[in-house]
Specification:
By secondary structure, the chain is an alpha+beta fold. The chain has one domain: Nucleoside Triphosphate Pyrophosphohydrolase, CATH 3.90.79.10. 24% of the residues lie in helices and 33% in strands.
Length: 152
């Protein structure tokens, strides 16, 4: 039976002021580390989904103004093992990228059915730990942007 999941999602890279990255380990796939991700629900904008997913997956509640909308989207092939969640014939997803800066060492409260663990890592280590190329690239972009910013 085909699923009804929309092939439009968000990626929310949660980081602290020192560019440490919060990663979540998928419950069904131990060793698969990622940032907050999730598909849009009916009537949601990418911003709405990013706010909802950040709270659902980490317990971190934020206001819309706290999220940075990168105005960047990635198109990628959906892993074959997850295609049954989508309507028949859907093979690709469009992901909208956001980031959220939170205080250092902010604790996460994960959704047990989705994630089994969380950890903070320096950005280079976090990028290397991600199974998703789009997540890795977003973390690298965030870290390199931090390096390029002049210190005050």
């Amino acid at each position: 039976m085909a699923g009804t999941k929309k092939p439009v999602s968000v990626l929310v890279v949660i980081h602290d002021p020192h560019t440490n990255i919060l990663l979540l380990e998928r419950a069904a796939h131990p060793g698969y580390w990622q940032s907050v991700t999730g598909s849009l629900e009916d009537g949601e904008t990418p911003l709405d989904a990013a706010l909802r997913e950040a709270e659902e997956e980490t317990g971190i509640l934020c206001a819309p103004a706290q999220l940075s909308d990168w105005r960047l989207s990635n198109r990628f092939e959906i892993f074959a093992e997850w295609r049954d969640r989508y309507p028949v014939g859907v093979t690709h997803n469009v992901e909208h990228v956001f980031s959220l800066c939170v205080p250092a060492a902010t604790a996460a409260i994960t959704a047990p059915g989705e994630h089994r663990a969380w950890r903070w890592l320096p950005w280079r280590d976090a990028a290397a730990a991600c199974f998703s190329w789009s997540n890795r690239d977003a973390i690298l972009m965030l870290g390199l942007e931090k390096l390029d910013r002049p210190t005050s």
